[in-house]
Amino acid sequence: MLEVTRLHSRYGRIPALRGVDLKVAAGELVALVGANGAGKTTLLRAISGVQPSSEGQVHFDGQDLAGRHARQRVQLGIVQVPEGRQVFGPMTVEDNLLLGTFARGARGTIDGVLALFPDLIAKRRELAGNLSGGQQQMLAIGRALMARPRLLLLDEPSMGLAPRLVADIFTRIAALKAVGTTILLVDQNARAALGIADRGYVMETGRIVLAGPARELLHDPEVQRAYLGVHA
Ligand code: ATP
Questions:
Q1: What residue numbers bound the domain in which 52 lies?
Q2: Structure pTM?
Q3: Residue 177 has what pLDDT?
Q4: How many domains does the chain have?
Q5: What DSSP line would sit under 128-145, residue for residue?
Q6: Which of 9, 76, 165, 229 has the smallest C-beta neighbourhood within 10 Å, fewest atoms?
Q7: Residue 185: inside a domain, yes or no?
Q8: Residue ranges of the chain with per-residue pLDDT less than 50
């Protein structure tokens, strides 16, 4: 479904992506892990079209996305949940969800999305800014699901959440995959992300340095040492 080929991107003179190759097949959950500043967010933003790329290609369903801006990519079904949730605090939960349908046209239903995140049902008419961090993350994912994504890009969904909520959010992401959602997941919590993924990529300083089945990466000594806190 998604094929990224030799992709480069820079911030002024600073290179952030230096020839990235990555694929996501329909129905897969792919985890992208790596240290702070490796370029994970930049890669997601380059796929969704909010960050320009200077070289290389992104193909979606065999179609070259060059020249297609972010809004057109949403219309094709590429929907990103940004790092830090970025829900609209002064708006209600319901209105935040409705905004998710804006660029792609009304698709999902509020009731359908709330059924996936029952914690939000009672909060439907509350302001998003009053929700807990975990609830805001669920709302951010719910808002993306309102657009019925064909490819869901999740950036650091567990960031800043208490450990109990981290486990909960990964369980819900696994459940989204189980119903057929195709997901590219970026998370600092490499163990949890690889734990629910089919395949994984490890990124360092703008390059993919390792790729393979998630289970194999979890047992790779280099990954264990660098990202899983396992000491030999
Ligand atoms: P994190 O987990 O901290 O978000 P990341 O792997 O997502 O890290 P990016 O945020 O993509 O990494 O950053 C990749 C590189 O680009 C880093 O060197 C970072 O300092 C730089 N960078 C990111 N955003 C900008 C920006 N707006 N302006 C200049 N440099 C940036």
A1: 2-86+144-227
A2: 0.93
A3: 94
A4: 1
A5: GGGS-HHHHHHHHHHHHH
A6: 229
A7: yes
A8: none
Q: Is residue 7 part of a domain?
A: yes
> Does a structural domain hold residue 197?
yes
Q: Select from 7, 8, 14, 85 the residue to mutate for testing ligand 1; criterion: most ligand atoms less than 8 Å from CB.
A: 14
Report the amino acid identity of residue 219.
H
Q: What share of the chain is helix, strand, coil (3-state, %, to 5)?
A: 40, 30, 35
The tokens describing 99, both together, are: 């905004």
Is residue 135, in this structure, part of any structural domain at all? no
Classified as helix, coil or strand, 100 is coil
Q: Which helix (H) or strand (E) holds 216?
A: helix 214-218
Atom of ligand 1 nearest to the CA of 156: 2
- For Cα atoms 30, 215, 77, give the angle at the middle one, nearest 5 degrees: 10
Tally of CB atoms within 10 A around 84: 12
Cα–Cα distance for residue pair 179/168, rounded to 1 Å:
17
Find the CATH number of the domain harbouring 210: 3.40.50.300
User: For residue 17, how far is its CA from the centre of ligand 1 (angstroms)?
Assistant: 10
